[in-house]
Specification:
alpha/beta, 9 helices, 15% strand, binds phosphoenolpyruvate, 3-deoxy-7-phosphoheptulonate synthase activity, 3-deoxy-7-phosphoheptulonate synthase, aldehyde-lyase activity, EC 2.5.1.54
Length: 263
């Protein structure tokens, strides 16, 4: 269903009216985690001012450590919905448990399945049946074939509004959190008709790498990028070291504008 063999034209997925697909490079930005109404609104305003057309933000955080901030849950979803009301930005947010899909979908414009759940087949089937666009991150240990098969689980439930997101894979390299596999972008685009975006924030794990990795993503033809921003990264409850602030995000958006998309 997601193969390009039976569907030669590349697809465009619309999220609250915003297109992700060939001919555009969509900027999705927002806080890694929803922490407070004010932090989320400030991050969203920064994102919007820079030119982002979709707001990201996690209410359910799949953290490596059980002692790390796990997200605000439904309270976080309510904050995202309020901020959408105030900014007009449609909301992309992660769902980590099949039992929460209906609840998260009632607030979100697009559901995100993260790297740690990329082969959670019950979750993939649940998001496939809920009637909202889905962003499927690549599992950090998944081959491109496994990633596309994961997308197939969603598609099989009748949902072809799927955006693939390359977010770095595990390699022997420890200088970056994960290794951004830039070749995955054109490879996945050739094998599948689905749009492919890149997450330079979670792959590098470092603020200074976000712009160079964004340039790389656009150069290989990514259909968009998803970027962490925070009004005060030193105080962030999650992934502060990779969050951009105002000026960095504006610079990144400028670079994106100057770089015409490959069609
Ligand atoms: C995220 O985008 O908030 C996230 C946790 O990403 P990943 O699943 O790629 O680690």
């Amino acid at each position: 269903l997601v193969s390009r063999d039976n569907h030669p034209e590349r697809s465009t997925v619309r999220v609250g009216g915003v297109p992700i697909g060939p001919g555009t490079v969509t900027l999705i930005a927002g806080p890694c985690a929803v922490e407070t109404p004010q932090q989320t609104l400030e991050a969203a305003e920064m994102a919007k001012a820079a030119g982002a057309t979709l707001l990201r933000g996690g209410a359910y955080k799949p953290r490596t450590s059980p002692y790390a901030f796990q997200g605000l849950g439904e309270a976080g979803l309510r904050i995202l919905a309020d901020v959408r009301e105030q900014t007009g930005l449609p909301v992309v947010t992660e769902v980590v448990d099949a039992h929460d899909v209906e609840l998260v979908a009632s607030y979100a414009d697009m559901l995100q399945v993260g790297t740690r759940n990329a082969q959670n087949f019950a979750l993939l089937q649940a998001v496939g049946g809920i009637g909202k666009p889905v962003m499927l991150k690549r599992g950090m240990n998944a081959t491109i074939e496994e990633w596309l098969m994961a997308a197939e689980y969603i598609a099989q439930r009748g949902n072809l509004d799927i955006v693939l997101c390359e977010r770095g894979i595990r390699t022997f390299e420890t200088a970056t959190r994960n290794t951004l596999d830039v070749s995955a972008v054109p490879v996945a685009q050739r094998l599948s008709h689905l749009p492919v975006i890149v997450d330079p924030s979670h792959s590098g794990g470092r603020r200074d790498l976000v712009l160079p990795l964004t340039r790389a993503a656009i150069a290989v033809g990514a259909d968009g990028v998803i970027i962490d921003v925070h009004p005060n990264p030193e105080q962030a409850l999650c992934d502060g070291p990779q969050a951009l602030v105002d000026d960095d995000l504006r610079e990144l958006a400028r670079v994106m504008r100057d770089f015409p998309p490959l069609v």
